[in-house]
Design a protein that fits this description.
The chain contains nine helices and nine strands. The protein is of the alpha/beta class and 282 residues long. It has one domain: Alpha/Beta hydrolase fold, catalytic domain (Rossmann fold, 3-Layer(aba) Sandwich). Strands 1-2-3-5-4-6-7-8-9 form a nine-stranded mixed β-sheet, with helices on both faces. The radius of gyration is 17 Å and the shape is globular. The protein starts with a strand and ends with a helix. The relative contact order is 0.14. The chain binds glutathione. Glutathione binds next to helix 1. Serine hydrolase involved in the detoxification of formaldehyde. Its EC number is 3.1.2.12. Belongs to the esterase D family.
Amino acid sequence: MTIEQVSSAKVFNGWHKQFSHQSTSTQCQMRFAIFLPPQAQQQNVPVLYWLSGLTCTDENFMQKAGALKIAAMLGMAIVCPDTSPRGENVADDNDGAYDFGLGAGFYLNATQAPYKAHYQMYDYVVNELPALIETHFPVTKQRAISGHSMGGHGALSIAFKNLQKYTSVSAFSPICNPINCPWGKKAFNGYLGKNSQTWFEYDSSELLKKLTDPQSFIPALVDQGESDTFLTEQLAPQALTQAAEQVGYPLVLRMQQGYDHSYYFIASFIEEHLRFHAQHFN
Ligand SMILES: N[C@@H](CCC(=O)N[C@@H](CS)C(=O)NCC(=O)O)C(=O)O
C-alpha cells in the first residue's frame, strides 16, 4: 500500500494534501485529498469521509465548502476520495454524459461489463481507503461519513449497510431513493444490470427500512434546500423520512428555505454538520 504525495499546502495551521495510489478495488490509480488539522501533529484524530456528487473530484469540497477552518478548530481530519475510477483504460459512457461513467461512480460495486473491471467504488470507500488512511496518517478509528447529492446517496447507503463502522452520518441534498429517479435508474441499470432486485442494496430508503435494531442506529442528519432544482425529480427526501418513520429511526431531515443544490448551500451548513459529527466522536 504505497501512496505518493501529489500536493501539500498549509491551511489553518493544518495541512491539505493530495495523494495518488494504485487501488486494488478499482484497479487503477486513485487520487484522494486529506485535511490534517493542527492537532494531528500531537495526537491521532478522528476522520470525516466526504463523498462528493456528480462531476466532482477530490477537490470540489476542499475548495468550496469552507470546512477546513472549522475542522481545524474541532481537530478533525477530512478525507475526500474521487467520485469514480479514472484513466485511459477505464470505461466511460459513450456520450460523455455527466451522470454516468467518469465522475459518476455512485459508490457501488458494478457487476456489469465493461464497468465491473474498475467501478468498485463501494469497496474502495468502505474498505480500502479507510485501511490506507489508518495505516499512513495519525488518525483514530473513529469515522464519520457525509456527502452531497450522489455522495449523499453514497454516505447514507454506506452508513446504513455498515452502522458499526461509523459513529454518525450526514448528507446534503442526497439522492434518497435512486431506484425510483432518473439519475439512479440510469446508473443502476448501467452498473448493476436490468434486474432491479439487485438495486435495492444501494438504495438508502430501502436499506433504512431493513434496520430493525435500535441499539445499532447511529445519529443521522440530512439537510435539503427547498429551492433545489433537482428536489422533486431526483432527490425524494420524503422516501427517506417515510422509511425512517416506518422503523423508528431518529433521522433528522431539515428542509432549508431558499437554498439550491450548490456548494453555497453546503458552505452555509457545513459547520453544523462538522459539529454534529464532532459531538458523536467522543
Ligand atoms: N448542473 C450540473 C449537474 C451536476 C451537479 O450539480 N453536480 C453537483 C453535485 S450533484 C456538484 O457538486 N457540482 C460541482 C460543483 O458545484 O463544484 C451539470 O449539469 O453538470
